[in-house]
Amino acid sequence: MAWSSSTTFITFAIIFFTYVTLTNVVHCLTAQKVIDSPLLTQKIHTNRTLKVDINGKGDFTSVQAAIDAVPEGNKQWIIIHVRKGVYREKVIIPRNKPYIFMRGNGKGRSAIVWSQSSSDNVESATFSVEASHFIAFGISFKNEAPTGVAYTSQNQSVAAFVAADKVAFYHCGFYSTHNTLFDYKGRHYYDNCYIQGSIDFIFGRGRSVFHSCEVFVIGDKRVSIKGSVTAQNRETEKENSGFVFNKGKLYGVGDSVYLGRAKGAFSRVIYANMYLSKTVVPQGWTNWSYSGTTENLYHAEYKCKGPGAEATGRAEWARQLTEKEVAPFLSIDFINGKEWLPVWL
Ligand SMILES: *[C@@H]1O[C@H](CO)[C@@H](O)[C@H](O)[C@H]1NC(C)=O
Ligand SMILES: *[C@@H]1O[C@H](CO)[C@@H](O)[C@H](O)[C@H]1NC(C)=O
Ligand SMILES: *[C@@H]1O[C@H](CO)[C@@H](O)[C@H](O)[C@H]1NC(C)=O
User: Fold this and answer.
1) Are residues 284 and 193 in the same domain?
2) Alpha-carbon gap, residue 116 to 343, rounded angstroms
3) Is 200 marked active-site?
4) How far is the CA of 296 from the centre of ligand 3 (A)?
5) What is the mean pLDDT of residues 255-268?
6) Is residue 128 helix, strand or coil?
7) What mean pLDDT comes out for the span 185-202?
8) 107 in the Ramachandran plot: left (φ > 0), alpha (ψ -120 to 50) or beta?
9) Where in the sequence is the domain holding 29, given as residue range(s)?
10) Are 293 and 256 contained in the same domain?
11) In terms of domains, do 145 and 243 share one?
12) Tell me, what's the pLDDT at 293?
């Protein structure tokens, strides 16, 4: 009996130590992979920093004032450090100011907030980036315009308008209801971001990878319309735009949602390796407000999990991809990331 229990003890001890060692290994591996602000700072290699501090302890108290101070035609990376605080202002990065790295103190701590609803998406945007080579880390963009039929049935409230090539967001938050993220054009990378909305809230003609992002659907007050997460607007076969969601999760409260609706005739959206909650309607995709053939729509899924990933009941044009079909979309080469991204996974 005594012998047996000490054997049991030793067995447990071995299992325990193996567990601890393995956990450490796994932990180290993940720790290496975490894309944080020091890593990005190191990669872009610059010593030019402008500090924005709402309490007056930096170089500026407004984010836009710091951007205004960046020289036109800027050619070297410059860090704009947005310290903890809620910055109530509209912020625009104009076309002639590339190479800005906007670094917050975390998406829960540094936020740019405005409240505007407009029939013009661009006009409503809290944050607009029109310059290429822009990176943001750890900052939230929010449009607080009131939601519901009375306010936004015609109008949109964009949190971020991304209208340039080679733009990346790491650990950022995007908050609004109707049309949150206008991914207008260019190659973009979103890593570990949080995107919240109710209707068509990731839309445009960007060529974009959403890696390990959290997409949160909030209920819309309208009863008869189900919202859609994406409204991708690829218009021709030649156009190389499309949204790729790889890993991460899509969930929400309130009404059910479509994964995407056909905005352009060649609308292209792929959800791969993602958790999809029951918030996703069984049909998955919609051609609502689109009258053409559904033949050219590229509405696809690959190895998604969760109650919302059930393939039976999907729209007839929806595709479940094979490993070979999905491969080009899961490679960072889809956005030529190796050429311009400071860090990718
Ligand atoms: C910043 O970097 C430049 C070029 O690498 C260098 O010439 C300059 O001395 C540096 N300035 C400071 C304050 O370190
Ligand atoms: C809708 O947009 C128009 C102009 O684009 C604006 O004047 C109006 O105030 C907006 N409505 C609401 C409810 O915000
Ligand atoms: C649009 O979707 C509905 C529902 O899935 C389908 O019955 C209809 O045929 C589709 N329209 C076209 C043009 O394919």
Assistant:
1) yes
2) 33
3) yes
4) 13
5) 91
6) strand
7) 95
8) alpha
9) 1-33
10) yes
11) yes
12) 93
